[in-house]
Predict the 3D structure of the following.
Amino acid sequence: MTFPVVPTGRAAWLVALAAPVALVIAAAVPGAWIVAPAAGAALLVLVLLDGLLAGRLDDWQLIAPADAEVGEPVTIRILTGIAARAGTSPVEAALACDPRLAEGGALSFTLSPDDAGTAWQGEVATRPRRRGTGAISGLWLRWSGPLGLGARQVSLGVDHSVRIWPDLAPVRSPELQFFLRDAQFGLIARRIRGEGTQFEALAEYEAGMDRRRIDWKASARHTRLYARENESERNNQIVFAFDCGQAMCEPVDGLPRIDRAVTAALTAAYVALKGGDRVALFGFARKPEVMTPFVADARAFHQLQSAAAGLDYHAEEANFVLALATLAARLQRRSLVVLFSDFTDPTGAELMIESVGRLVERHLVLVVTMEDTELAQLQSAEPETVGDIAIAVTADTLARQRALVLQRLRALGVDVLEAPYQQIGYRLIDRYLEIKRKGAIG
């Protein structure tokens, strides 16, 4: 390992400032030309001496997590020991990493000394931008001497990988945990009476009950009003299907739409598992890529998380015809299919409508899409130029086409959920619970 001495920016500025002075001396006193090279040699000696006084790197350590979640902050720390160093200027550090971890694949920060001045440490925070494995491949350190003219610079090889998982912050949120505790979806599965389709018991009718629940035959036998209590359906099959094509890879507020969809789906899947239903994931682009078995136990939730982490990004249009035909062939009983998709091309939207129309004949289909806030802003922006007017007209045309596609889906009997990405997870849970209470799946 070598620690070359390099000139700093201060040394470069001194050379730049000294050059005009040397020219003036050479022009005014030609016999004193020797002063310029002598000054240059002196500066070079100072740079070398200052670099030597900067000290040598004895030890270093990189501390980074092995696992992270997309969109959530990750802290990377560097610890170094520099022996025989004179001076207290910060140590500059730079990391080379996968673009999944940081934009541009680089992170820069400075290290500060401890009280003794022998150990230097610093940290940098970043937010992973995509799922997958993000490698940290290199570390550069640079520290200057007491004069700030010479610096030591070292390049170090790093072999560390960070596995980037889907964001599960909503699953861990106190709000969802309180909801699961209070909404009869706790760790001990309990029957939900009063709604649903499966008969559970008779209870004496009380004021405020739905009159449609009155069992007139039982009431006639007992000469008192009795109401039917039904048990909400359990053991339903829920399939979360992801369009991994180009439209879903477009970013929304810094993260691809597919990652926003995965977070919402895993949050709803966790609630469904707690509610006694069975959950599977299905991902596709040009062809089907991921199809998990149905998971029936919340303790196996990590299987869904691992499968969702394997959903890749594709810069191509999704093949809805092949994907949904494959999914329909694998489903042996009526299921709730939650399809996350987006569309900008009218031709692709037409193929999606046709394929979803065949799927809805046997299954209950819920299409989830995120509101295009950028398109709405372009529509509502005050135009100042002719170009702004053209942009607004184009945005309005796209918005009308989008609304027409959603209207056609609803006409086929497809349930459609459109919401901002911040609300999509909890809105999906509400819609799932509403479908479950109505007993519409089985």
Q: What stands out?
A: Residues 199-231 form one domain. The chain has three domains: 1-165, 169-188+233-438, 199-231.
